[in-house]
C-alpha cells in the first residue's frame, strides 16, 4: 500500500485513481493551480474530467490532506505540505511561489499584539516580493 493510499484511508476517503494522481501531482509540483493539476492528472489518466479533478481537490482540501492557498489577486494553488503553518513568498511580477518556514518553529509563529480573548492556533502570512529570475531581468 502506498503512502497516499494510507493517507486517504486515514481520513476515510475511498482510494481512487484520480485521488492518487492528484496527490502525486501535487507532491511533485507544489503550489500549482487547478488548471495545472488537471493537465498533470490527465497526463496519467487521460479520461478524467475537469469536474472530477475539481471534486478531488475539494475533498482532499476538506479532509486536510492538501492545503489550498490563495494569495490576494492570484489563482488558488494547492500543495501536499500541510499541518506545519508554513508561509509563502510570492513574486509580484510572475507569480512564482516558494515556501517560507515558520519564523519561530511552531504554529502559531506570530504572536498577536492582542488576541481579543480568541484561542489562536494558526497565523496566515504572505510575503510579497520579486523572485530572483524577475529581479535579474533587464529593465525595459
Ligand atoms: Zn518572478
Ligand atoms: Zn507551501
TrEMBL record:
CDD domains in the cross-refs: Fur_like
Keywords: Cytoplasm, DNA-binding, Iron, Metal-binding, Repressor, Transcription, Transcription regulation, Zinc
KW Hydrolase (keyword) present: no
Subcellular locations according to the entry: Cytoplasm
Membership in a protein family: Belongs to the Fur family.
Name the record gives this protein: Transcriptional repressor
Organism: Amycolatopsis oliviviridis
Gene that encodes the chain: fur
Amino acid at each position: 500500500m502506498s503512502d497516499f493510499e494510507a493517507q486517504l484511508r486515514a481520513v476515510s476517503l475511498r482510494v481512487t485513481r484520480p485521488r492518487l494522481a492528484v496527490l502525486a501531482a501535487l507532491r511533485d509540483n507544489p503550489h500549482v493551480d487547478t488548471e495545472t493539476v488537471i493537465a498533470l492528472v490527465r497526463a496519467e489518466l487521460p479520461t478524467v474530467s475537469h469536474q472530477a479533478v475539481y471534486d478531488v481537490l475539494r475533498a482532499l482540501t476538506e479532509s486536510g490532506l492538501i492545503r489550498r492557498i490563495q494569495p490576494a489577486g492570484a489563482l488558488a494553488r494547492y500543495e501536499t505540505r500541510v499541518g506545519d503553518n508554513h508561509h509563502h513568498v510570492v513574486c509580484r511580477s510572475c507569480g512564482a511561489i516558494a515556501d517560507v518556514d515558520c519564523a519561530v518553529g511552531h504554529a502559531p509563529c506570530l504572536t498577536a499584539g492582542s488576541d481579543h480573548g480568541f484561542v489562536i492556533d494558526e497565523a496566515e502570512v504572505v510575503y510579497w516580493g520579486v523572485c530572483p529570475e524577475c529581479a535579474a531581468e533587464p529593465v525595459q
